[in-house]
Structures are given as structure tokens and as C-alpha cells.
Queue: 2 jobs
Job 1
Amino acid sequence: MTTTLTALAASEHVHDLQRQADQWRSADKKADPIATASVELRLARHEDAWALHRIAQLDDAADLDGEVLLALLDGVAIAALSLDDRRVIANPFVPTQNAVELLQMHADHLFGRRERRRRLRGIPRLRLA
């Protein structure tokens, strides 16, 4: 009798664990795709012109000029920032606030580095006697 009860309890425990695992798997599949997506920031290339034009049209804005930083979400362009005038275009149908903030921070970093180099070039080096 004890063996049967133990086997029954073990069997129920196994079924509970399987139900929990199934719930966990289904919840994982329903996870927010934006939260698990990969984001890439890079300078736009010639072949990105069509994607930049498409984003500008979706955003009802003019195309960006000059060097452009591009934000890609899982390989799809969603936002861009002009390094010349710091104007931003973004796909209004995708949550892009974080991507735009990343683009602005990256642009600040790039401009800060250029400014430091300019300042350092103008400062004469100290020579120890």
C-alpha cells in the first residue's frame, strides 16, 4: 500500500512538473519580441539608401543628408540620425524611443571624441627639462 501511494505521489509530482514546464515554455514564446531583439548601431552605407528613404516617408520627414547613423532591430532599419544636423527619423509603427536615445548617445560620443582630438591638437605638449 505504501509503495502504491509513493508511486502515485511521484507520478502526480512528475505531471505537475510537466505542466509547469509547458506553462514556462508557452510563456517564453509569448515574450515581448522587442525585449529579446538585437539592436545594431552603425554608419549607414550606400545600400541603406532605400531603407532610409522608406523610414523618412513613414515618418513624414525629408530624407537625411550627409553621414547617417542607423539603428537596426534584428537587421531591420527602424531609426536614423544625421551626423550633420542631428535630425532624427524613425519608423512610427515600431517602438523606437530607446533606439533613438542610443543613436543620440552614440552621436554625442563620436562628436565628443572629435572635439577632444581637436582640442588636444591645439595644445602644445609639455616638455620636461
Job 2
Amino acid sequence: MMRSGNPALSEKAFKEAFPARADEGVMTIEGTVNKTAILFIVLMIGASIGWYQPIETAAPLLWTGLIGGLVLALVTIFKKEWAKFTAPPYAFFEGLFLGAVSMMYASLYEGIVLNAIMLTLGTFAAMLAVYRSGLINVTQRFRLGVVAATGGIMLVYFATWILGFFGINVSLVTGTGLIGIGFSLFIIVIAALNLILDFDLIEQGAANDAPKFFEWYSAFGLLVTLIWLYLEFLRLLAKLQRR
């Protein structure tokens, strides 16, 4: 399995993990940027549909986008070479989900969606600048730490979801006190550090001649992180407005 940030990750390791066909071509940073732009446009189309629907249709669109996006994300993760076929519909379904979620938040908190978008884009630009400057060195230890923290957060969210069926509220996740807000800030930091891993994965893939399909997979991974970051900013801003 390819690991971004691994000092032992050589060109040979990339080619052994994902052998490129002679007629396929190899991954480039420019190609990945173009694929990311395509996915972002598809995402915005889906989000526009979700945003401009009547409020009573928000829940069906939300669940359609969530389930469809989850299924396609799992397929893409386990079959990376299918990314060029699965990533665009994933972006569309996630757009439906984000549009519906954003509309629901906007109906409760004025200006929250625009603020969350600006914070997400600002964080993306800041982390890209940090990565390009070399202030953060993506070592294997750094990568494993971020991955471990991300996995822990996902487990907490899963446990919170399960406990919710029994009427148990986990204040660490949903609370508006200092602990709840601090936890949201911690998650945002981890999500932002995942952007560093995404940038490194793209650079490593291009430098080591990963196959062309990896442009789509890298763009997909970057979109996943940005969606997560945007949702966490929405959650944090909602907590702050409820205080």
C-alpha cells in the first residue's frame, strides 16, 4: 500500500504498488489539479440542486447524497483504479448532501454557510502555503500520527452515532461548552493536517510516476478532506452561535 510521507517510498515502490500500462501515461501535478477542478465543479452542481430545493425535501436529498457518497467512496478506496469512474458521481452525491445540510444550517444560523466556506478555503490556502514553504516535514511519524488521530475521531463519531439511538448525548461532540468547542477545534486541526498529507501524496505520486488514474484518486482524496473540513467548520460555528 502506498504511503505518502514515507522516506522509503521510492519510484520502484510506487510502480510495484500501481504498475502503469505503457498506453496509460503517468500522473502529473497539473493533471491532478485539473481533475480536482472537475470534481469541484461537479460538487457545486450537486450542491446547487440540494441548496435550491424546498426545505421539506432536504432530508431525502441529504440521505440520498450521504448514502450514495459513502458507497462510492468505499468503492473508490478499495478499487483505486476505478477512481476516474467513481470520483465524479461521488462528488455529485456529496454535493447533494452538502447542499441540503448547508440549507438546513442556513435556516437556523444567519451567515453560517458563507463563513464556513471562507474558513475552509482560507485553511486550504494556508496549509498549501505551509506545505510549499517546507515548514512541516511529512515524515512517516508525522503521517502515522495524523492517521491515528483521524481514526480516533472517526471512532468517537461512530460511538456518538450509536449512543444516539439510545438517547445518550455525548457532550464532547455536541456540547457548546469549552470542552465541546475545544474538541471541534482539535478536529479542525487534524482535518487541516490531512490536507498536508494529501499535498504530499500528490507530489510523491507525480515525482514517482504513479499511473494516470492516480490523478483521479488523489483529487478524490483531496475532496474528501475538504468536505470534512467544511462540515467541521459548520459544526463549530453552530456551536459558537448557540452559546
